[in-house]
Hints:
With 596 residues, the chain is an alpha+beta fold. The protein has 19 helices and 11 strands. It has helices at residues 8-18, 21-27, 35-53, 57-63, 80-89, 108-142, 145-156, 285-321, 345-377, 381-416, 419-422, 428-438, 445-459, 463-479, 486-512, 515-546, 551-568, 571-580, 584-587; strands at residues 66-68, 73-75, 160-165, 181-184, 190-200, 209-216, 229-234, 236-238, 244-247, 250-255, 266-279. Strands 3, 4, 5, 6, 7, 10 and 11 form a 7-stranded mixed sheet that branches. It has a two-stranded antiparallel ribbon with strand order 1-2. A hairpin with a 4-residue loop joins strand 1 and strand 2. The radius of gyration is 24 Å and the shape is globular. It starts with 7 loop residues before the first helix and ends in a 9-residue tail after the last helix.
Amino acid sequence: MSTYKAPLNDMRFVLYDVLGAEREFARLGQADATRDVLDAVFDEAARFTETVLAPLNEIGDRVGCKFDKDTGAVTTPPGFKQAYAQFVEGGWTGLVSPVEFGGQGLPYTAGVPLKEMIDAANLAWGNFPLLSHGATDALLHHGEDWQREVFLKPLVDGTWTGTMCLTEPHCGTDLGLLKTRAAPNEDGSYAITGTKIFITAGEHDMTGNIIHLVLAKLPDAPAGSKGISLFIVPKFKVARDGTQGEANAVRCGSIEHKMGIHGSATCVLNFDGAQGYLIGQPNKGLMAMFTMMNTARLGVGVQGLGLSDRAWQNALRYSRERLQSRSLSGAKFPEKPADPIIVQPDVRRMLLTCKALVEGGRALSYHAGLQVDISELAPTPEERQQADALVGFLTPIVKACLTEWGMECTYNALQCFGGHGYIAEHGMEQLARDARITTLYEGTTGIQALDLLGRKILQLQGAGLKIFLGMITQFCDAESGNEGAAEFIGPLREKTAQWQQLTLQVGQRAMANPEEVGAASYDYLMYSGYVALAYWWARSAAAAHASTHSDAFKRAKLETARFYFARILPRTMTHASAMSSAASTLTALDEAAFDS
């Protein structure tokens, strides 16, 4: 059975030493978000996730959710409902929500370490409250006053949970093909009819109501994605005065049998004239839904981070304990019958890969969270706009790269266990199975790559990239004399220049042939992620050198940064070469000849 210990020391290092978050919160008017307050929050979050959630991870996987086909009800695994009650009682559901709706009003950034702890401790359980925050964001930005008053308070206090109902059996990510319909009722509400699939937490036994945010089309809607509207559809009807009534005409038709996250209910929902309320303007539903989706995409990236960290922790412990053979250069522990496997270079390669991707990924994701706060709270419109562009640019990188690295880290960690990692006893195969979904939901890696290159770079003329490249240049100029980072400045400048050149080249090819965008997008995304992580490792080394942390901590950061630059950053050369090849290498083979 795997265990989990919240990495509070490194979380605090990233927040306070690398990002200077406490100073930023004060500048943004978040006077209550002091280090004392945040540290107390993180300490209690660690206690809850380590002692309540983590022990339920294995039973959630083994027992899973149960579906009653006669009633459409879903029962969560033993202990899940009770853990959620403790979560609500502790006020965790409203940690970063507005005070006027019952939340605690802490910065969004403060919720990122909490989410990392939850996902590392029990990813499947964490999916139940996951989308409530996104639903809250959608209602805050696009809902009417009465909708915010009626629906936000119970979502914030955890009495109700939220879902996001997008896709249907026939349309996948092409939402322009959706068939769910919304017919106007005389009372101003709408009758929603259709089937939605892959609905996380679409049905469960944890709360008294579930608030579905549903994409549907009005009778006079334009064709395609321009004709999509967004609706609030509660499991139990809710009147405009907040009174909860009878069951709505929405029912869970089944739950999916999945590779992993067995403790999370992934539902088929059938809407049969269910009462709903329009959010925002007719035919503008995608705008409102993307508010929710962007929050969820950052959150899924943090899921990859959490799983990576738990896998790495257990692999490190096992590699220190497992005695097998001797070091190639002679016994390192001659008093023992064999050396621990951590003395073996290849085991160290896997462990250091996990450590580098986890700790670098933590800085990347926490920084993206900080940009969310700046985009909402900065004193000037210019700064808010710049932060919004930056977080838009970072979102596909955080979502895709941290989940792809989550696959790599859980694989490497399992590999450290050898055959013992493949059996269920140690819990490593569960982490590997659970990690697989993170690269798929909320938009696959390919979808994120197209969003990054096609929209954030080409369509928006690289606004976020320019800001990020400016950050790197400013850092290199300021820290070239820093003993802790000087050796990384040259390689970082080189990669930054190459990033700019590759972007220009892909853009020029795309003007002649649009297929070049799809052909280059995956490699462009991964290249971007590796260079972004190089920046964060250089910054981490510099911050560690200037910090009051122990010499051992400083040395670990420096040596891990060296490992990253020497053994992981060179992956960019493969991605650069691949994206520089013509799209014809992918399109030349006729589809009929694939099986020839």
